[in-house]
Amino acid sequence: MQALDFDTFQQLLALHTDYALACDSADWERWPDFFTEDGSYRLQPRENHEQGLPLCLLALESQAMMRDRVYGVKETLYHDPYYQRHIVGLPRVLRTETGPDGRVSALHTQANYAVFRTKLDGESTVFNVGVYHDHIVSTPAGLKLHARLCVYDSEMIANSLIYPI
């Protein structure tokens, strides 16, 4: 594995930070832009992941499907409003890929996350905890997610999943 240079590592941290900020500020139109056009976003319980079972709670296989989800979140879903707050650990780089120029072209990373939910008339509670398994690629616009698999620890998600994790 090639060591990451400082700038690439800073870009990786910015990707995680900006992603969490977009989700926490309900900037849903921006959410699909963190992914490549053919990027995927899946939410899977840990039990299924560890047993190699493919069933996911949510599986979006392109930016177009993500934009459709954003439309659903904003225009068609009714739910009690709430805020969410992401706490994301430092990413661990598992593997790098290099291009013909010797520069890092792709990263395979993991990062622990916790999402807290605060209802407008209530207290904050832990909503979802797990690990991101990411395949990140270098693009002319910077680092983008080609695949994000959110493996959440609990078998059940309280109430329903409205917003991206």
Mean pLDDT: 91
CATH architecture: Roll
Distance between the termini: 29 Å
Oligomer: single chain
| Low-confidence regions | none
Radius of gyration from CA coordinates: 16 Å
The computed structural class is alpha+beta
Number of structural domains:
1
- Topology-level CATH name: Nuclear Transport Factor 2, Chain: A
Structure description:
This protein is of the alpha+beta class. It has one domain: Nuclear Transport Factor 2, Chain: A (Roll), CATH 3.10.450. Helices cover 23% and strands 43% of the residues. Strands 1, 2, 3, 4, 5, 6 and 7 form a seven-stranded mixed beta sheet that branches.
Topology, pairings included?
Blueprint: H1 6-24, E1 35-45, H2 46-50, E2 58-60, H3 63-76, E3 82-88, E4 92-98, E5 104-119, E6 124-139, E7 142-152
Parallel strand pairs: 1-7
Antiparallel strand pairs: 1-2, 3-5, 4-5, 5-6, 6-7
